[in-house]
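quick one: zinc ion bound model?
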Amino acid sequence: MSDVNEQTCQRCGEPVELEREDYELFERMHPDCFHYAFEHDLDRPGLGVDEDCGDPACPSGA
Ligand SMILES: [Zn+2]
Ligand SMILES: [Zn+2]
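yep, here:
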């Protein structure tokens, strides 16, 4: 059994400080990383992470 306290982002490799439930919900990533991995370039494939994709939840927006 692995260390349940060790939650590492599948995308950026940094520790994820979320409730276990939320961590699983975001496919074991940061919410921002999840957005970039699955949502960010859906409408505009290849969109850079420093560009706003138009999603209100986009970390690159605002
Ligand atoms: Zn991450
Ligand atoms: Zn976005």
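Residues 9, 11-12, 14, 29-30, 33 surround zinc ion (ligand 1) (CB under 6 Å).
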